[in-house]
Design goal:
Layout (H helix, E strand, L loop, with lengths): L1 H11 L4 E3 L2 E5 L5 E8 L4 E9 L11
């Protein structure tokens, strides 16, 4: 599932913004979100965290 989420991010790039420049791709089968940022200058996708959604939303990345 993680590999499919990463492949989707590589194709689409612009999934939902969760906080400032953190975007997230929800894994379809498991309760996880892949958080990432985009560096348009260097054309990079930087995966910052894989987060279990049962945790409190206050723990979502915000830096």
């Amino acid at each position: 599932m993680y590999k499919k989420a990463v492949a989707d991010i590589l194709k689409v790039r612009y999934f939902q913004v969760f906080y400032l420049n953190f975007r997230g791709r929800v894994l379809t089968k498991f309760p996880y979100i892949v958080f990432y940022t985009l560096d348009d200058e260097q054309e990079l996708i930087i995966i910052k965290a894989v987060f279990h959604t049962a945790q409190a939303p206050q723990k979502y990345p915000h830096k």
